[in-house]
Amino acid sequence: MLRYNPYEFQSAARDFERARNRAMMKEIIARFTGQSVELLSYDEVRKKLKAQGSADRGLQEIPLDAIVGSVGRYSDFTRDFLPRKDSIRERWTRVKVASTGLVGLPPIEVYKLGEVYFVKDGNHRVSVAKEVGATYIQAYVTEVHTRVPLTPEVKPDDLILKMEQVDFLENTRLDVLRPESDLSVSVPGQFEILQEHISVHRYFMGIERNRPISMEEAVAHWYDHVYMPVIVEIRARGILRGFPGRTEADMYLWIMEHRAALEKELGWQVRTDSAINDLVQRYGQNVRRFSRNLGEKLLQVLTQGKLLSGPPAGRWRQEARLDSLEERLFKDILVPVDGGEGGWYALEQALLIAQREGSILHGLHIVADESEIEGGLPIQAEFEKRCAEHGLPGQVSIVAGDIAPLICDRSRFVDLVVTNLAYPPGPQPFDRLESGFHDLIQRCPRPLLATPRTTSTLSKALLAYDGSPKSEEALFVAAYLAEKWKIPLVVVVVIEKGISTAGLRYRAEGYLSAHGLKATIMVKERPAIDAILQASQDHGCDLIIMGGYGAPPLVEVVMGSLVDQVLRRYDKPVFICR
What we know:
By secondary structure, the chain is α/β, with parallel strands linked by helices. The protein contains 22 helices and 16 strands. The chain has helices at residues 6-33, 42-48, 89-98, 123-131, 156-172, 174-177, 190-209, 215-237, 248-266, 272-283, 287-303, 315-320, 345-357, 377-389, 403-411, 429-434, 436-443, 469-484, 501-514, 529-538, 553-559, 562-569, and strands at residues 40-41, 54-63, 67-70, 108-113, 116-121, 136-144, 332-336, 360-367, 394-400, 416-420, 448-451, 461-465, 489-495, 520-525, 543-547, 574-577. The strands form 2 sheets. Strands 9-8-7-10-11-16-15-12-13-14 form a 10-stranded mixed β-sheet, with helices on both faces. It has a 6-stranded mixed β-sheet with strand order 1-3-5-4-6-2. A hairpin with a 2-residue loop joins strand 4 (108-113) and strand 5.
């Protein structure tokens, strides 16, 4: 057994850690740039380039920079042979100790295709040699003949991509069926995944149409009805600006992969536009967004999330691209359920909305610890039973964690959150700071319908309007409900001293008139809580629509809000918009 100097072994172990960290950093950067750091698989390249026949070229000095792949270890190292797995630590370290001056290590074995090399034996030796700054290494070379020349100046990925694209077009004839198509990608292996997408689409087309589907029919239908709608969205949003080096086909595949991962995590189907929004927010290259996210994380740590302001007013409409009252507004509804007495009112209210909107209901049951998840199965069954009784699709996820943060996180993938209002924010600053419902209003990125222990028919709505950005969102929702649900609308214009009464009334009235809507409009000065409640009672309203908190979080916690007053005193649902 070889014995190593402990000091040398520790030094080599530290070298491995540095190399490992560099590998992780390169992989993170590659995620944003779209540039592959993958080591090439010899078998895959040989197959793609249709290489055949070989000759033994004996022992040679070969340039390390010309080594681009491996026979069996291509997943263990990056393209420049930095270690990608902690499991190779000990072997790498022992090779490093034994390689002082590259003495005592046998030559590696490689296959040569053109002027590039693939390691058959000696991957760790190559990694160590590159780490110490060597430029050449001894190798036993077997040359494999190929009709396609490869040189160190030609990027192997580019050549492989072309070969893969040729195979893809031969199999699909997409360039003939849709001559305008351009499915260029930046990473090897993507064309095979695209072809899998088409095959799956062909399979489900056959089931839906109850007949065999030709490849050409499936390719054309997939391109027109699956691929291009995503590409149109990518172009409309200018998404590629945030992902330098990526192509449209790259983004399509990333979005589909991200959507599948989200569906597995959430336990329900995710719309493509929601997956796009989430991917852009998580990975889009935007320095301002990165700084804001960093600041929010710091504030969350310092205040345990109590003073986070949530997304800006109108973000939901921008992400959903909702510019017209003609579009269906609430396609997906999130309903947190606790299974307790009175806790099913929110679901009953959501069912009424879903029947009007044709929505899909997503239940969320939150437990304190993962050991309690099984205990939530009866709640899951009851939720799905009630949905089925109304002829509506409904799914339930049971997750462990903190209630408000989980609801806020899941709400990013729906259009509305309908939740039980058991404990409205209290009248004192400390009450508001500790209120979970206060956190929801402050941070939830989607409209929120607070339901007390009652179910409303939602037959007549009152809009509390003060001209703030969030009340403009409430005006949009109120107009939509009046138009689509055909319900009467009462507007109470709440004004601050010094603001033009006529100006605010004109804005609200003008917006509604532009959409062919009429409403009963009245103007009230602050304090307005009594006027709002009185107007609701006088006109028989069973729903109040209003904007969320308008002041910065700290100011709102200290000074209080009209929203909190309405939640404490109104005994019917309150629709809170951001």
